[in-house]
Amino acid sequence: MAPRKEMAYTDAVPIGTSPPPLPASKLPAPTRFPLLTVLSLALSALLFSFVADSTGVELASMSRTLNEPWQAVAVLAWKVVELGVNWYLNFDDVDTVSLTILSHLPFCYLLWSFYSLSLRSVTILLLIDIISIALPTHLLRPRAPEHREPPPEAGAKPTYSGASPIANPHIVHDRVIQLAITALATGIYAAALLLALRTWLPAHMITHFAALRSLHRAHASSLAVLLPALLPLGGAAHDFLFAPALAARRHHRNSAGTKAKTTASAFNPATASLVETLRWNVGLQEGGTLLEPRVRVLARRTAVAAGFGGLNLAVRTWAAVAGAELLGAVAWAGVWSGAAAVTGLAFAWIGDV
């Protein structure tokens, strides 16, 4: 049996093979994002009105009071920015669900762990955040090929032809690999949070969160508690980082599993210049590791998850939580941004195995 990595290369779509076009929305392009914004904000307001009697009082008890009109406008504007990032980076509904979980679940965990909110309330809050952005996106944008598994025929396993619109479909849609990658990412997030909770984070939270209610749940945290609680983060990391990156691998390989030779990939250390030698050593030459589509996609999405996801978490924590100082919000977001960055690095290593 051929090694898994060699099998992955034989599944890859050769360069020049065009995937079938996705169905596009019939709405004029300039109207789609404004419509997405209106639908998302309206849906969020509608859903919160449904749960106001059951969770409104509990959520309001820890919310920062917005006394000035500009504060409400700023919160609304940031929501539009979040929608814009998802839309203009061409994320589909699965991507938006995943990125929302990566940046919003830590906020909900903060409310549960340090402000003693009920699990029911924070779960409803997270679900409303997810639905209000994912459902309009689903209506206005088709799902990406890496998130669309071909249906099996008559109960058989899904089959993939050489014309698959993604590379490595057997790996991208393999259930065992999905579970393994999810477990790995969950473990990274849990370990990062537990390390922070066991060292500097509790003292920092007491100093920079004036209305903090309790540290009991934080001190009682363990891997047995954190792993199931953070499992959605692992699944989101798989869908947002791992699957799109692996599906983007496009280097054509011959039957022996080696890269086809090109004149650009040839490197002669005896005649190469200093710049060419440096580019070769760090993988920046044409056809090099750092220029592979897989690496570029993973690097870009990791930057979004760790960078914008962390920024979004810091802004929301500072703007929404009563007594939260900016430094405290940034530190809380930094824990999760660091975990996202480490997860991206781990996925990059796995992709080369």
- Biggest sheet overview: none
Shape: globular
CA-CA gap between termini: 17 Å
Query: Got a strand count?
Result: 0
> Would you identify the regions where 5 or more consecutive residues have pLDDT less than 50?
4-22, 251-264
Order of helices and strands: HHHHHHHHHHHHHHH
Approximate helicity band = 55-70%
Q: From the helix content, strand content and strand pairing, which structural class follows?
A: mainly alpha
Description:
The chain is mainly α and 353 residues long. The protein has helices spanning 4-11, 29-50, 52-60, 69-88, 93-114, 119-140, 169-172, 175-198, 201-208, 216-219, 223-229, 231-247, 274-282, 293-320, 326-351. It contains 15 helices and no strands. Helix 2 (29-50) crosses helix 4 (69-88), helix 3 crosses helix 6 (119-140) and helix 8 (175-198) packs antiparallel against helix 15 (326-351). The radius of gyration is 23 Å and the shape is globular. The model is unreliable at 4-22 and 251-264 (pLDDT under 50).
